[in-house]
Amino acid sequence: MGEKILEWLRERRQKLDLFDETLVAHQDNPLYLMGPMLYYFWLVTVVTGVILMLWYVPTTTEAYSSIEHIQNDVGRLGFLLGRPLAVGGLIRGLHKYGADALITVIFLRIYRMYFLGEYKKPGELSWMLAFTGLILGMISGITGYLLIWNQRAFWAAKVVLTVPVYFDQLPLIGPLKFGSMIAFVFLGGPAVGQATITRFYALHFGISLVLLILVEVLFFRTRRKRINMSLSPVVVFLAMLLVISIVLPAESGRRADPTRTPLPILSDWYFLALYQYVKYTPPLWAGLGPGLLIGLGMLVPFLDRSRGRRPLERPFFTVVGALAVLYFLAFTALILFNIAVIERDPFIIMWITLVVLSLGFLWEVQYRRAQKRAVAAASPSSPARAPAHG
Amino acid sequence: MDPQAPELMARRRFLKLVTAIPVLGALVAVISPLLRFLKPNVEKFKIYAPTTGDTPKGEPTAVAALREVANPWDSKYFVFMQKYPQYTPEGFKAANVPGVVVRLPYPITLFDPATGQGPLSWAKEIGKTPTVTQSDIIIFSRICPHLGCIYNYVANYKEVTAGYGGYVPPPERQHALMACPCHLSIYDPADRQTPGRVVSGPAPRPPRTFLFEVRGDQIVVTDVEPGGIA
User: I need a labelling partner for B108 at 20 to 30 A (CA). Which of A372, B2, B10, B56 fits?
Assistant: First the structure.
């Protein structure tokens, strides 16, 4: 058993394709530049992050002011469009938009891997690592977000860390108070405060640091190229980040106020769909649902036993993926426009899901039947086609 | 093909197992204090009891004069300072727990000393006995028991229908309600059995309540129900 697993791992590890996209080898197609882009944006984020650490003060009283100071005063170059333009602000913009770009690229890459069936053998490990990367990226996002110590950040952290408390309601493992323990370890106490900032600061930096070392080991051992992308996209992407940091400087919002909940409470854009989902479900499921979804997502390579790689050759999984994209976009739109009717929406959503999934299933059955018929028709030894008199 | 060979292998595995147990034990012994390091205000040797020692303490505070909430459905917001154990140099974090005093149109039983039941029965967890057992004044913590946002006391139920997810209360609940803007939970402060009953939305329980006394013409809040994240 152990031998088998090791063998499986060895085989996948050789074909591991995290950043260089050598296995797909369409360097002319931007869809296949996402591996190198991922690594590139990650490096931009890490480097600018370390520069920001030089000025940032991780305390509840000083954090917000130090961010304002970085944004407006550190290395001020002058004024542009009525706003102070400072090197600090540019660095912060690069950090924020670099991170946004990173998450976007991971999302797009996961969707690409899904719809093009790249997760199939031997891509299972790459797929699972891409998913892990997305989760760690999101954790980095939420831990980094709190460091600004503005209203959004404070309430996002509070809401997200109250969710695990509900795991205490689970049978068997609930009474161990495992959920409260998770919340406690992140918060450093039963309230969002100084300890929370310190811990989030450590995690925010630690996640990237540890991953960077691991990835460096990978590069060292496999001798793959780090950024498998020509110079022009490297320059263009940096220029894009710079332009957007100047035109649309990273926001600071309002200083955190524990006595007033902002309306609506929002977080980084990639959490918005989740926030809408939390409105619809009891809190235990608000925690378990995304966990189960992530688990299912990770297991997709083992659930999808179809042979083809093209989207139309495995209709059911294509329908599931399309539905996931649709829900992500729809939930994000709903929360942005602050639309939710608690008594009505969950039923509509449940019915849509059920109907679409069963239609997808029927499509799959029908497709497989047609496939079988085609095979039977094509094979010369088929008894139906055998001529009666040779 | 010695028939003894598999037997020998099994013995080796057994020996390995026997050695592994004390090694693992030692590892656990080393790691468990590290776990305590993550939450040091737990009592010694009680690493599985996460909430002990986390109980916050507050100062009794006069929150409203009786005349301010003289009529049914009158309400007053206030802020109660609560000290949560944390790893600051002071050893605690002072957090503000917002609350609301509500005058109900009829008195309800807050605590039944005979059976120990009622909305204030949590008081025994912190070693207290409620002094006010029946009252038409009730005081809720405004921290939503769902995910910790701060909810609002909405005097007109029509505003709840319009702004908090389209909940239309049945005729007997068409009065002031409490509603959370974050995830649209709605509470009925005047429910006779469970004041603060969840009437709509994802909240799992009614809002937490305060222990209070009436001293002269002042309503004095002494403690808030523990739990949740402030």
Answer: B56
Domain encompassing residue A128:
2-258
Q: How many CB pairs under 8 A join A and B?
A: 132
Summarised one tens digit per residue, pLDDT across range A13-25 is 888 888 877 666 5
Tell whether B118 is covered by a domain: yes
- Kindly report the number of other CB atoms within 10 A of residue A161's CB atom: 22
Distance CA B178, CA B98 (A): 14
Pairing of strands B177-179, B152-154: antiparallel
Tell whether B45 is within 8 A of chain A (Cβ). Answer: no
Residue A65 Cα, gap to closest chain B Cα (Å): 20
Statement: residue B28 has pLDDT above 60: yes
Coil, helix or strand at residue B215: strand
Interatomic CA distance for residues B11 and A135, integer angstroms:
44
Do residue A190 and residue B167 have CB atoms under 8 angstroms apart? no
Token pair belonging to A112: 């690409």
Coil, helix or strand at residue B135: strand
| Domains identified in chain B, total number | 2
- Please give the residue range of the domain that contains residue B1: 1-50
Specify the 3-state DSSP secondary structure of B108.
Answer: strand
> Backbone phi, then psi, for A259, in 5-degree steps?
-100, 0
Contact A66, A79 (CB under 8 A): no
State whether B149 and B68 are in the same domain. Answer: yes
Contacts 24+ apart (CB under 8 A), B10-17: none
The partner residue sitting opposite A177, judged by closest CB among B51, B84, B228, is B51
B129 and B212 share one domain: yes
Please list every residue in chain A whose beta carbon sits closer than 8 Å to the beta carbon of residue B84. 189-191, 193
Q: Which amino acid does the sequence have at B9?
A: M
**Could you tell me if residue A88 is inside a domain?**
yes
Together in a domain, B61 and B46: no
Does B14 contact chain A (CB < 8 Å)?
Answer: no
Interface predicted TM-score (ipTM):
0.75
Among A161, A260, A282, beta carbon nearest to B204: A282
pLDDT tens across A203-253, in order?
999 999 999 999 999 888 888 888 888 888 899 999 999 999 999 888 888
